[in-house]
Amino acid sequence: MSSDQTVSSDPLDAAKADYQAGKAAFERGDYRKSVQYLESAKSSVLPMSRFGGEVQIWLVTAYEAMGQRSDALTLCRELSRHPDAQTRKQGRRLLYILEAPRLTTRPEWLTQIPDLTNLGDGDARDRPTAATIASAKQPEKPAFQLEAVVDPEQVNVKDNRFVWVALGAIALVLGGLLWFM
Fold first, then answer.
1. Taking the domains of the chain in order of start, what are their residue ranges?
2. Cα angle: 108, vertex 111, 112; to 5 degrees
3. CA-to-CA distance for 34 and 19, rounded, in angstroms?
4. pTM across the whole model
5. How far is CA 9 from the centre of its chain?
6. What highest taxon heads this organism's lineage (predicted)?
7. Angle of CA points 64, 81, 59, to nearest 5°
8. What is the rounded CA–CA span in Å between residue 60 and residue 52?
9. At what angle do helices 31-44 and 50-66 cross, to 10 degrees?
10. How far apart are CA 45 and CA 47, in angstroms?
11. Helix runs in the chain, H state only
12. Cβ-contact 14, 44 below 8 angstroms
């Protein structure tokens, strides 16, 4: 093995690299690549180990994001019987979420997010610039407006004796407490 070689001979190192690449791809929204990396990492580790369980938890999430619900449910059911207690707990929680009934929503409640998976690194012309973002965020009206100024003569400044009644009630309660002591 030469020093120029970047691929490690240790399968655990390769699995960790695939795992990190899969997580990064998932966080970028590239779920297809995330599934590929995480499946590669899963095949390189012991599935019943703690790290194997962690890889599989991420794989369940990536499957669900890709729309592969049946694969996500199958793997999640396996994880709910995992030997590691933490992985088993997470697997059960995910299974509970995945098996929950879907809520119906109205289209006007949702915000459409464009699919950027086919957008390559060289397609910079399609990306929004700071100028286009700033022009899209023009408010219709000022964020803060002062209400009409209130005439001081219309404000009720007379003493309504509430403070004195409250102080008297407090004095009576304290006096009663002292009496019972």
1. 11-98
2. 110
3. 9
4. 0.54
5. 36
6. Bacteria
7. 25
8. 12
9. 150
10. 6
11. 11-28, 31-44, 50-66, 69-79, 85-99, 130-136, 162-180
12. yes
Rounded CA-CA distance 59/76 in Å is 9
Nearest C-alpha neighbor of 51 from the set 24, 98, 83 = 83
CATH class for the domain made up of 11-98: mainly alpha
- Cα 32 from Cα 118, distance rounded (Å): 11
Query: Tens digit of pLDDT per residue, the chain (181 long)?
Result: 433 444 456 888 888 999 999 999 999 999 999 999 999 999 989 889 999 999 999 999 999 998 899 999 999 999 989 999 999 999 999 999 988 887 787 888 888 878 777 766 555 555 555 555 555 555 555 555 556 677 777 777 677 778 788 889 999 999 998 888 7
